[in-house]
Amino acid sequence: MKKLLLSFAALTTIQGYSQSISITEIGRYNDSRDGACEISTYDKDSKKLFVTNAASDSIDIIDISNPMRPSKVGGINVLTYGGGVNSVTSLGNGYFAAAIEANVKQDSGIVVFFDTAGTYISSVKVGALPDMVTVTKDGTKVLVANEGEPSDDYLTDPKGSIGIIDISGGIPSISASDLTLLFFDNAPTIISGSIKKPGTTFATDLEPEYIAINDQSTKAAVVCQESNVLILVDLVNDSILSYRGLGFKDHSLAGNGMDVSNRDNKIQIKTWPVKGIYQPDAIASFQSNGSTYWVSANEGDGRDYSGYSSEERIKDLILDSTVFPNADELQNDTNLGRLKTLSIDMVGDIDNDGDVDELYSYGARSFSIWDSNGTLVWDSKDQIEQYIKSNHLSFFNCDDGESNNQDSRSDDKGAEPEAIITGVLNNTIYAFIGLERQGGIMVYDITNPSSPVFNQYVHTMDSITGQMTDIAPEGLVFVPANQSHTGKAMLIVSNEVSGTTTIYEVVVATNVSLLEKRISNFSVYPNPTSGTINLEGDLIPKHVRIIDITGKVVMETPLNSNTLNIEFLNNGLYFGQFMGENDEQVTKRILKQ
């Protein structure tokens, strides 16, 4: 089995210490078709994953009783119920729910309830284009974000809404009377820090994309990506609390740089006179010191339909000559010219004189932490791009996880942080951020919400082929150890483009010596060594992990020969974990001097 690679090199701008955790790939379900693995949910009792599959319009049922060997054991044809499945969530007690759009996207979709054998139980009609479904922590309510996207000609634009389904009476008895549907007719005319299509109201312009729920099941945060709005919902009274525009990121400030051109033949992260619109795709919640926080993956998204498009290149705008005296230089393709921005009717013409006074770009190329009311607490600034530049240059801002597409997404949202989930290990809170275009998962310790610490980057890059095995992480599921049938925490990643769902085991790396499994007649030499070591014995190692005396993984790589070069490591004592093809393993102490 191909193992994951971990990168631990930190940037000078990423400071602090986080406990060492080991994230190890233990299994992969491979459909291999684009769109085959988008959103997953896990059920402990049945030991199954339920995975949305747009390639076959199905929900695939995957047995992971042995997570090292996931196998498909069934499926549900969603065309029986509508036009396609967008999301699934496990409800426990033998059930899960699926958000299924109508055959005509602008019509009302449904939430369908199934048992874990895939048998239909009941359904509830909700709003137009149910895009994400989730359940409260106490298991009493199912929430669905009804995006309400317009038709391609933009002649039909249904209202977005939030559906709240009371399931406290049991899944088999659910009916339409259990649904509360929240529309946005009473939204303010103006929401500061948001954007809106001209000629519309927020009642139709707000398109709910993703939902997070606090630990107490009393409050939800709903992201409307295109409008850059966060809606807070009271789950006690099933009512809207507030509408909050998320504002804009100033890319002219130090630390907020970005690479904006795919035509300059170089990697150039620098500041620019541009405001990034946060526009999160996914949002999650966590609790620290008794307070609720929301954490967002700031992907960005425009409105690009045949009937209306808000997308422009900066080179195609007329810039105000007073604000931008160097407009010709800025609009060159090697500078800001290629960067995707908004049309002048959306935002930027402050004085309404027909030219652009402020420049905006889609997304913030970061992840952010917001307090319970939606006020920004912390943003990762340009750390993601800086890290990839310093550690995986050939994959920098690549498209679909391919190094031969290096820099191809710099003009269009960069690595695109899209998926996000939080999890707790040993009282430490982590955020896992999926990079859609770049590929891989960034991991941060967010225990202190105002000062997160980079932990590691999990990826499946292959330096020989220049490709990733897992491409475009779309859905993340974190399973705590006490909710896992294996007794260990799991991170489950659904990768849309590669059509793979990958299972990782997540543990705190504490006592390295406990990892040792002895195999007779296996040696590493010379030992001590100043660089290259030879491997010899009964084990034919296919993978190696080098761990320092603090328990931190400092190197992890596949092995294709019987030699290993550790010349780049600092002098000191290390533990080498050598793993064979059938998961046999031996640990050897190695002295580098």
Protein described:
Mean pLDDT is 92; it is low at 1-15 and 511-518. It is globular, with a radius of gyration of 24 Å. The strands form 12 sheets. It has a 5-stranded antiparallel sheet, with no helix packed on it. It is mostly beta strands and 593 residues long.
Briefly say what this structure is:
The chain has 593 residues and is mainly β.
Radius of gyration over all CA atoms, rounded: 24 Å
If strands are numbered along the chain, what order do they take across the biggest sheet?
1-31-30-29-28
Helical stretch tally: 3
Provide the residue-averaged pLDDT.
92
Give the biggest sheet.
5 strands, antiparallel
**Structural shape:** globular
- How far do the termini sit from each other? 33 Å
Structural class: mainly beta
Oligomer category:
single chain
Instruction: Assess the beta-strand content as a share of residues.
Output: 35-45%
Low-confidence stretches: 1-15, 511-518
How many DSSP-defined strands? 43
Specify the helix fraction band: under 10%
